[in-house]
User: Which sequence fits this backbone?
């Protein structure tokens, strides 16, 4: 009988000889080159971008239908999937141009597990979206479940846009692969609607509605429970056998409201979500973790990130996407490696308008059908 006051492990663990055997057999198991040689993390880092070794529990197919949910990082992944002629249902939504100042579907970015759960409850489970969630600032209404505070609109327009968003997320029923990129743990709560928000209410809003909005730094248990709820909704209402791939966005927290240094707040956020993602996929045959966060953040920052030190470099996103697909069984090089959806739309405003009106599902499809033959520029000069 043990006399230790520390509880023993909850599982059987890996027997000691087996643990050593696994480490010896895996050439990627060591950090230092003196131990692992060319497969070590240290040696991979010397090449600038250190790609991670992994053996997923399932394989993907070139005819899979993808739907991506997350922040700007997952939007960039979408573009790389499109460039490989893969079917991506999370691109393309009818939107007014003045309501989408960045990527046309960028206003649909989701930063927290709570906001992901909200959208799936509304779009798949049939939970009604409350009118009270549209916040009136005197000039019009804002939907704080969107990715940023757009121009204020009439209540009728807010309802129309929300109907389109419900239809958009309803496409999850078609997806055979759902990619979830987890962003942050800081989340705002609206006490009037009893809903967690996707974005921060403005200074003017918190002044106009004292006590309505409060900040919460969600913990491991909360985020794991919400991710489990997202998975349950996908399994219940989505395509039979749907596969879920979870990762953590390497894009850092732009601003914290916790009172901590932004570096510390970001560290807590990402480490919490990394632990959540790893534990979430354990024991689920159709859920897997992909380490894009580790690949980007341990690599040479001057190569991995753009000049803003915030967003991941396009070439690195493409490298990560290619690695992801290869490890999951899709050997598919980008058919048009120079193509970037957002850059093409910036360079061709008429095409951007056509995609916003959904006369074309994406700029990439326009380029394939017309733009290439017309000699359209791929980016602004």
Assistant:
């Amino acid at each position: 009988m043990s006399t230790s006051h520390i509880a023993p492990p909850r599982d059987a663990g890996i027997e000691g000889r087996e643990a050593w055997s696994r480490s010896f057999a895996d050439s990627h198991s060591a950090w230092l080159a003196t131990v692992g040689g060319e497969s070590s993390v240290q040696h991979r880092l010397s090449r600038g971008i250190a790609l991670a070794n992994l053996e997923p529990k399932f394989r993907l197919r070139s005819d899979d239908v993808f739907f991506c949910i997350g922040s700007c990082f997952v939007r960039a992944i979408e573009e790389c999937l499109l460039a490989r002629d893969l079917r991506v249902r999370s691109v393309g939504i009818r939107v007014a141009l003045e309501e989408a100042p960045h990527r046309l579907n960028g206003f649909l970015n989701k930063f927290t597990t709570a906001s992901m759960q909200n959208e799936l409850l509304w779009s798949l489970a049939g939970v009604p979206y409350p009118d009270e969630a549209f916040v009136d600032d005197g000039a019009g209404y804002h939907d704080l479940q969107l990715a940023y505070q757009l121009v204020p609109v009439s209540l009728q327009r807010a309802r129309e846009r929300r109907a389109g968003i419900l239809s958009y997320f309803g496409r999850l029923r078609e997806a055979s692969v759902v990619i979830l990129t987890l962003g942050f743990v800081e989340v705002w709560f609206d006490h009037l609607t009893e809903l967690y928000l996707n974005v921060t209410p403005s200074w003017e809003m918190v002044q106009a509605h004292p006590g309505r909005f409060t900040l919460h730094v969600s913990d491991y248990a909360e985020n794991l429970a919400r991710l489990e709820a997202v998975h349950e909704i996908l399994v219940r209402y989505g395509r039979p056998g749907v596969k879920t791939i979870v990762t953590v966005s390497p894009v850092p927290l732009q601003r914290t409201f916790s009172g901590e240094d932004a570096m510390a707040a970001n560290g807590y956020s990402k480490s919490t979500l990394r632990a959540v993602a790893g534990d979430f996929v354990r024991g689920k045959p159709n859920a897997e973790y992909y380490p894009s966060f580790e690949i980007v953040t341990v690599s040479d920052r001057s190569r991995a990130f753009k000049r803003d030190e915030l967003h991941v470099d396009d070439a690195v996103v493409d490298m990560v996407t290619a690695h992801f697909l290869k490890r999951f069984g899709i050997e598919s090089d980008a058919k048009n490696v120079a193509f970037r959806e957002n850059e093409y739309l910036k360079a061709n405003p008429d095409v951007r308008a056509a995609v916003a009106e959904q006369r074309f599902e994406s700029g990439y499809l326009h380029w394939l059908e017309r733009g290439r033959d017309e000699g359209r520029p791929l980016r602004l000069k």
